[in-house]
Design a protein that fits this description.
The protein is α/β, with parallel strands linked by helices. It has helices spanning about 45-55, 75, 80-85, 95-100, 110-120, 135, 210-220, 240-265, 270-275, 290-310, and strands spanning about 1-5, 10-15, 20-30, 35, 65, 90, 145, 155, 160-165, 175-180, 185, 225-230, 310-315, 320-325. It contains 10 helices and 14 strands. The strands form 3 sheets. A 7-stranded mixed sheet has the order 1-2-3-4-5-6-7. Strands 8-9-10-11-12 form a 5-stranded mixed sheet, with no helix packed on it. The protein has a two-stranded antiparallel ribbon with strand order 13-14. The model has no long low-confidence stretch (mean pLDDT about 95). The chain binds zinc ion. Zinc ion binds near residues 70, 72 and 169.
Length: about 325
């Protein structure tokens, strides 16, 4: 654990078998109340690591706030455990409710994921929700959270953290901004070495890639000297990194346009197969099953963005969605 700024500590919590490698776990120590950001996976060794941090910094559970940036299990896995320890838990209304609707297999989160797979044309890949990493590491109980409302301020010691809406990576991801010290805790909104996953969440969330790009614009225009992200290396120049992320999505949109030009009326699956992926698989058949959900979700978000831009038309036929370029 190291002190990365006055009274702000960083401890890396390992995420085994995960390309994200570890979670940057932040602790802000105040005289009265203290704050921790996100939790890591629900694993015994992580509980142990967090207990050590509490002992080392002399944190009292009843005087500590757990702030959840978003619903993903590498950020929320121990929320129930920490709530039982006595911490107050903050989550956005959107992600908190989604998290609480993902406990049972029959809950909307998983039934929607299955439905999206059918829409995307993944039925022939015979995916099983039991193989979905989000399902495997899903929360085991509901959390009683306090809604983190954008604009509200959480005061810890000399810091005043404003809750900022960063939606895009998830429908309700939130960050904490300290204006005077020019610090932003941004969760997975902006990461240093990897591109945050932007996926299709359902039509009720609209053009989620467009929403994400707007949240990037918001942070681009903010005065930030210290961007504290949740994984891998910290970002020195937030504007330079955001420009790289814009370029990444522009490239992806071009790949999707090209796939539609080549294949005509296509399912999300057909487009997904033609995008460039970092995974070392020769072709779609060798693609790890668990990753097919994520790849198709990402391709789908890009197709929906093209549709929002007015470039693409979509139609449902026998339960499967088809996309094609307008003339
Ligand atoms: Zn995430």
């Amino acid at each position: 654990m190291k002190e990365i700024y006055k009274n702000i500590y960083l401890k890396e919590l390992p995420l085994p078998n995960n390309p994200l490698k570890y979670l940057n776990f932040y602790i802000i120590k105040g005289q009265e109340e203290s704050l921790i950001i996100d939790t890591g996976f629900n694993r015994e060794e992580i509980k142990e690591e967090i207990r050590k941090v509490f002992a080392e910094l002399k944190l009292e559970p009843e005087k500590t706030i757990l702030f959840l940036t978003h619903l993903h299990s590498d950020h929320t896995g121990l929320a129930t455990y920490l709530e039982k320890m006595g911490l107050k838990v903050y989550a956005s209304k959107m992600d908190g409710d989604l998290l609480n609707s993902s406990v049972e297999k029959s809950d909307p989160m998983w039934q929607n994921t299955i439905q999206h797979g059918i829409w995307q044309g993944l039925e022939e890949d015979q995916l099983d929700i039991e193989d979905h990493p989000g399902f495997k590491f899903r929360p085991t109980a509901h959390i009683n959270y306090i809604p983190a409302i954008p604009g509200e301020v959480i005061q810890i010691g000399e810091y005043n953290f404003e809750i900022i809406d960063l939606k895009g990576h998830t429908p309700g991801i939130v960050g904490l901004y300290e204006k005077e010290h020019k610090i932003l805790f941004c969760g997975d909104h902006i990461l240093g070495d990897i591109t945050p996953n932007i996926t299709f969440w359902g039509f009720q969330y609209g053009d989620i890639l467009g929403t994400y790009l707007k949240s990037l614009d918001l942070v681009y225009n903010m005065n930030i000297e210290h961007l504290f992200s949740s994984h891998r290396s910290l970002v020195d120049d937030h504007r330079k990194r955001i420009e790289e992320l814009y370029a990444h999505h522009e490239k992806r949109l071009n790949e999707a346009r090209q796939a539609l030009r080549k294949s005509g009326k296509s399912t999300v699956r057909t487009v997904t197969k033609q995008l460039q992926w970092d995974i070392k698989s020769k072709n779609w058949d060798e693609f790890p099953k668990s990753q097919k959900w994520f790849a198709a979700g990402e391709a789908h978000a890009h197709l929906e963005h093209l549709r929002a831009l007015g470039e693409v038309t979509m139609e449902e036929e026998k339960g499967v969605l088809y996309y094609w370029l307008k003339e």
